[in-house]
Design a protein that fits this description.
single chain; 339 residues; alpha/beta; Peroxisomal Thiolase, Chain A, domain 1; 2 domains; five-stranded mixed β-sheet; 11 helices; 13 strands; globular; binds oxa(dethia)-CoA
């Protein structure tokens, strides 16, 4: 009679079973930025590792455009029926509109007509927060197909007269499909953190309920990202490395058995510091910051998209992020398929 006892049932895990991505065609190079603000390709390259970033041009083009393209890319590869999708979560700080949620727009556009959908705002950590939430739905047995999107149209909230901020950000979106598995694969562990004191150093003042849009907020350039770069840099280096080290340690992950570090792409110097703290050599660090810059919610899924063909079933991935809020965290993922 013991067979029906839940204790004997295998634990459900959330496996990543598909990846999609999209970056816009327009390439904003460091050379072009030299014509917009007082900067040099040399300064940007040595201080951040970024050479170029993508920009979504055109009227009425919101982040949904990129989210839809990313999900369609994933659907074409996995060949799942969008009607089977239970839930769509979109991690973004540049939603098409304050409401409705951009995830609602994306779900309908891709034919996920049976899904419920919502946005999640955790800035640069948005994707790992949403991945953790999506994994929870799967692990509980509540849902069987959850799509997690991360993406931002940072160019929409960028002050292209602020040389210390505008040089790092770009536009892009990526997504993953989560499905249940009873194998020891998928999202194995998560450690998420936040600290509202970070508001001082990284925020967008106007356009919310505290300071609605007015002629004054526009004149004062308060609808753009405000970032005290060097302060954020210090918090990022310490905290992203700390959570990565903690997740590695409690899962017995070492330089020898971590296949890939998958770090948020904000600044190559932050990535290098995190890698060195967990003792990982550069060849095991996913990196595309030189081509896309910091796409906020988009960086981690775009890395998975870029490296998908190199990933093998059973690979140990350590995802890590730090961003506005402050929010930060690390997620241990065991890769579930060979491409
Ligand atoms: O992803 C979400 C979280 N965000 C981050 O993780 C970003 C973290 N911060 C950073 O990546 C870096 O702080 C930045 C790349 C944003 C800035 O680099 P930095 O090395 O921290 O520069 P800084 O702001 O401390 O400025 C150093 C100097 C200043 O000149 P003085 O005062 O020393 O004469 C700046 O005016 O560099 C100057 N500077 C520039 N010079 C040429 C700042 N931006 C530029 C620029 N070109 N684009």
């Amino acid at each position: 009679m013991g067979q029906t006892n839940t204790n004997t049932m295998s634990k459900l895990r959330a496996a990543i079973t598909g990846v999609g991505g999209y970056v816009p065609d327009y390439i904003l190079t460091n050379k072009e930025l030299e014509t917009m603000v007082e900067t040099t390709d040399e300064w940007i390259t040595t201080r951040t590792g970024i050479k170029e970033r993508r920009i979504l041009k055109g009227e009425n083009q919101g982040v949904s455009v990129m989210g839809i393209a990313a999900v369609k890319d994933m659907l074409a590869k996995t060949k799942i029926d969008p009607k089977e999708i239970d839930c769509v979560i979109f991690a973004t700080v540049t939603a098409d509109m304050t409401f409705p949620a951009t995830a609602n727009i994306v779900a309908t556009a891709v034919g996920a007509t049976n899904a419920f959908s919502f946005d999640m705002g955790a800035a640069c950590s948005g994707f790992i927060y949403a991945l953790s939430a999506g994994a929870g739905y799967i692990q509980s047995g509540m849902y069987k197909k959850v799509v997690v999107i991360g993406g931002d149209k940072m160019s929409a909230i960028m002050d292209y007269t602020d040389r210390s901020t505008c040089i790092i950000f770009g536009d892009g979106a990526g997504c993953v499909l989560l499905e249940p598995t009873t194998e020891e694969l998928g999202v194995m562990d998560t450690l998420l953190k936040s600290d509202g004191a970070g508001e001082t150093y990284l925020h967008m003042k106007a356009g919310g309920s505290r300071m609605p849009a007015s002629n004054a907020t526009i004149a004062n350039r308060q609808h753009f990202v405000y970032q005290e770069g060097s302060a954020v840099f210090k918090f990022a280096v310490t905290n992203m490395a700390d959570v990565s080290a903690q997740v590695a340690e409690r899962n017995h992950l070492t330089a020898d058995n971590i296949t890939w570090l998958v770090p948020h792409q904000a600044n190559k110097r932050i990535i290098d510091a995190t890698a060195s703290r967990v003792g990982i050599s550069e060849d095991k660090v996913m990196m595309n910051i030189e081509r896309y810059g910091n796409t906020t919610g988009g960086t981690i899924p775009l890395l998975l998209w870029d490296y998908e063909k190199q990933l093998k079933k059973g690979d140990n991935l350590l995802l890590a992020a730090f961003g506005g809020g402050f929010t930060w965290g690390a997620v241990y993922v065991k890769w579930a398929y060979n491409s």
